[in-house]
Amino acid sequence: MALQRLVGDNLSKLGESIAHFSAKFSGYLSVIFSKFGWFLFHAVLVAGLVYLLLSSQPSFPSSQCFPSWMLTRERTNSRSPFSNNFRSPTKIGHILFGIAGSSKTWRNRGPYIDLWWEPNKTRGHVWLDSPPTKYPWPSSSPPFRISENTAIFNGYNKHEMPFAIRMARVLLESFNLGLSDVRWFVMGDDDTVFFVDNLVKVLAKYDHNKYFYIGGNSESVVQNMAHSYDMAFGGGGYAVSYPLAKALSRIFDDCIRRYQTLYGSDHIIQSCVAEVGVRLTKEPGFHQIDLLGDIYGLLSAHPMSPLLSLHHLDYIAPIFPGMTRIQALKVLLKASKANPPQLLQQSICYHKEHNWSISVSWGYSVQIYQKIYPPGFLTIPLQTFKPWRKSGVLSFMFNTRPLSTDPCEKPTVFFFDSVKPVSPFVNLIETVYVGREDRSISACNLNQSLPNIVDEVRIFSELQDIRVAGSRRQCCEVLPSSGMNVTEIRIRECLDDENVAFPLL
């Protein structure tokens, strides 16, 4: 009946078209008929009927007309059913955190999570292996859930990390909660510190309706070689878009059975993501911190990318001298709250009068060298840290420069102390940096002005947004000092024709 109705409708349209055609071009038709007769007329009629039938796109079952391999599959809606259009900006409420933890480790590691977790603002859960022994559960912490029993995978669990399967399934179990308006699933460990404001803005760059797996590699060559350069290291954190999480949910438990010997949960995740056909999108602000000792050198020469996370904090020294780890992180987060995108962003300038090179890591440190060094040298981190593992290959995924006791090469270091707005009427904030270590240092040469005459460094800068790809590093300039033992510096956007040129001696 549907086919008859379709043909009838098209014949009616054909009749109307022919009538219109005949009225307008009757003169031409008479000539055609006189010369070629009704044969040509019937040919035109049949051709017109075929054209109209095809152009109307009848809804015949596709399998009756074409083989299945020639047909385009119907597009499925890969978006979260609760998502808005990509043009709607991603906000903190669109992110669901999944923190892999343990009831045994939470007592010591929970304070790291409490540093950045904001109740009634951030969303997510800590996933534990058993009910916690600490009651009542702190209101400052994320709500906890108990991971599902993974005994059904015992025959497939040959992982060196015995709880790898449970930790990997935190992503699946977070997705299965079916919470509304989730665009991104962000996974981390119970000793991961996230810088949430920056994380929100970085994820907002990406279309959450597409398949994204975003994270970072290890700082260690050995770790990347042992696992994968295409893997987001789980302790540093990684983000999975809703469509990718949905695709993974269909295959995840079967995928786990296919990868029985991988070391950790993050390698299982990466292997399953690869089966979906997605590769890692790298963001340098995720930090696994597969390093030992003092990472001050790395934080003072951070990549030109927003700081997103820090991990393995129990394996490194406190990031500010003279403090506990938690105290030091609170100080860094205080700077972050004042101007999140600018945290750890490096600027370089020169004090020509004193012949100083100055490197600023906003919100963390200021290094003053008694010698002129080019920017390409100062952007290489000082190797204040040790490798995660000793090996015969290169240790780090980035260049380093050695520490030196030579006063011409060793910087005088000032660490972040405080931040405040300059005035309610201008878009300027002031950060203050003070010396927190032994500042006895020899002069580089007899005519050299010593940096230890400076008690504090004051930095004036504007509030910033995330710097888009293709942006330049900000410029800085030394200002006339307002105090005897104070150095003041302004950080600003570089002028179009400006370059960070060091003075020739």
Automatic annotation (TrEMBL):
A Pfam family the protein falls into: DUF604
InterPro entries referenced in this protein's UniProt entry, alphabetically: DUF604 (IPR006740)
Domain of life: Eukaryota
Keywords: Membrane, Transmembrane, Transmembrane helix
Membrane-traversing stretches: 36-54
Single annotated GO MF: acetylglucosaminyltransferase activity
Protein name, entry field: Uncharacterized protein
Organism field: Amborella trichopoda
